[in-house]
Amino acid sequence: MNTGGAGFSRRAFLGAGAAISGLALLAPTRTGMARAAAPFEPTRTVRLAAGHMEMKLLGPDKPASRVLAYDGIPFQTLRLPRGTRLQADFVNGLDEGSTLHFHGIRMPNEFDGVPTLTQPLVQPGGRFVYRIPLDDPGTFFFHPHCDETGQVGEGLAGVLIVEDPRDPAFDAEHVLCLKDWRLAEDGSFLAMSEPDGASKAGTFGATRTVNGAASLALTAPAGGHARLRILNLDSTRVMDIGAEGGKAAGFEAWLIAVDGHALKPVRLDDLPDGIWRMGPAQRIDLDIRMPADGSPVTLGDYRAADIYAFATLTAEGRVQKPRKGPLALPRAELPRADLKKAGRLSFTLQQATDQAVKDLALPADDPLAKALIDSLCVGSTTYWGIQSESWPTGANRSLPPPLARMEEGASYAVTIKNETRFPHPVHLHGHAFEVLTSSLGRLPRHWADTVLVQPGEAVDVAFVAAPGDWVFHCHILEHMETGMMGWFRIV
Ligand code: C2O
Ligand code: CU
């Protein structure tokens, strides 16, 4: 990983007002609601340069593919202690605009990475400085927030692990990034989106990988506890993650965190179908107790008839003093909504018809009223909407009014209803919300930043509103780019 390179030394931040206003020029705050910059002293600086590289995704003897990565490291992983003040100097080495979005991190709105709404698009060759407080421990990731079907589809994403010194000590730990690729036999990319996919379940990739390989051979000591951080970094695919340890004595798999946040450990076997259903952008942490007799454990996606076994954990060594488990993570420390006083809102996910796409605009006195959505960041067609409104696509490029206006610090209970025939992983920027109930009764109460809402399902979530303009969208990237996105204004 590259550090430094920003042209700003750490010393320059220590109290020097001039240096801070210099930075403010580099990282312009969004118009309108700009707040006085709180003093931010980075404790860690990284440079993240987006660019091309070659990867052999089809197999070792097959042609390579020209993919995208930060600093030439596929799924680059940043591991930082809780409390880090992260300065990320983004350099756009692509031939189109891009930005960095730290998915799931609670942060000042101006560093959220949504072009137009929170910052200008970073043009090719351009830079942007992000200042991100890492206060919540867990498994997160970062990705661009422009032409996501293209950029994320071609691999542009990194992993951010915020470590908590209070976590129990595991006997092994592995990070697994699941992502499919849309590749032709010569290694080149197929079209990332087809109308039939974009308007339905999405356009799937046929080359399935974990950390860029067809499968992983991992190890953990017999009788020990392995922590698996599993990220669905695919643009499209919903996965049913399960673990198989046969009848071996001692084998057990617990879900211990969702989207980075601890939950009361639940045995995978006690969940419906013995799996955790995970849409694009969702993450889980599992505690796998390895069989005492040294037999292996297999991890798989059980959603398709064709099970995708993406990793095998083989015993290597043996723990001296086996711990029963589960090894629970410390309770999540997040602002919890007051449900008695919470404002109630409801949003319905819908299939859009052309007539339903209204040509709305913000009131003329809104500072963002004249903002145009950059043409690189929207799709050409509208297939989806939220609450009868669609994020503008094609030539219809003015920013729509917010889906809701909320009050900073107030509690909200929001029902997300899915009236379509397809599942949608719905993500709210800048917050962790509590998933309270599902009308299908399939979800334990847990914290998350993205929740999968099944066809016909209504899911209730609650959160304490944080100030800023935050997008709320489906993380099936084609759905987001063809209308399933809106935003909340919180003041
Ligand atoms: Cu991964 Cu708009 O987010
Ligand atoms: Cu969707």
Ligands bound, unique: CU-O-CU linkage, copper (II) ion
Estimate percent helicity. under 10%
Total discrete domains: 3
Strand content: 35-45%
Distance between the termini: 37 Å
* CATH H-level homologous superfamily name of the largest domain: Cupredoxins -  blue copper proteins
Task: Provide keyphrases for this structure.
Immunoglobulin-like; 491 residues; 30 strands; mainly beta; binds copper (II) ion; 3 domains; 5 helices; 6-stranded mixed sheet; single chain; disordered N terminus; binds CU-O-CU linkage
Give a written overview of the molecule:
By secondary structure, the protein is mainly beta. It folds into three domains: 4-163, Immunoglobulin-like (Sandwich); 172-318, Cupredoxins -  blue copper proteins (Immunoglobulin-like); 343-490, Cupredoxins -  blue copper proteins (Immunoglobulin-like, Sandwich). It is 5% helix and 38% strand. The protein has helices at 10-13, 17-26, 148-151, 195-198, 477-481; strands spanning 44-55, 65-70, 77-81, 85-92, 101-103, 127-133, 138-143, 158-163, 172-181, 207-210, 216-222, 225-232, 239-244, 252-258, 261-267, 276-278, 283-289, 297-301, 308-318, 343-351, 384-386, 404-406, 411-418, 424-428, 433-438, 446-448, 450-453, 458-464, 468-474, 485-490. The strands form six sheets. It has a six-stranded mixed β-sheet with strand order 10-9-12-17-14-15, with no helix packed on it. A six-stranded mixed β-sheet has the order 21-20-23-28-25-26, with no helix packed on it. Strands 11-19-18-13-16 form a five-stranded mixed β-sheet, with no helix packed on it. The radius of gyration is 22 Å and the shape is globular. Residues 1-34 have low confidence and may be disordered.
